[in-house]
User: What shape does this take?
Amino acid sequence: MAAMIVNRLTLALGRSEQFGLVYSELVVDGRPLRELLSLEPRDEILDHANRGPAGENVAVLVHNWPMAGAGGARVLLGEETSELADGRVPLYVCPVCGDLGCGAVSALVERSASHVIWRDFGWEVGWDDGEEEIRFVGGPFVFDRRQYDAELREFVDTYDHQRARAPVREASPRPPRRRWPWHR
Assistant: This one.
């Protein structure tokens, strides 16, 4: 039996100057997750700005949303239930409002006693829009559960401190809902 390759999840400080956000970027084996995902060849025509599947969306681990909370990390830890149907977990969300209805890069997250697996990455809009689901190339990523949980637990435990240090961001009006992050 071949040895299982285990990936390492870390969090790195990220900023969206355009939207005034401070967040923790999801990093797998030293590379931002957004760089490890790509569109299926048949869907590449949708990416007019060549931004990749995450587009300008931000990781769910935002420090300065107008509404405070570390819920994104708690969902990734399996402590809270995802708002998405079919058990998918949001990883990247709208940088304006964070609303899943604007669309989100998501994955199936499976937890066992020793590992956490992210697989079947795709685009979710939070409702059944009648369109064919868009799935991405990338993964699966298999993490040691202890290391994974410790990294996300640190985000939760230091959230209030990090939020106090981040610039205040005022609430923005919700943008119109969009099918894909690369369409404007």
Q: What stands out?
A: The chain has a mean pLDDT of 84.
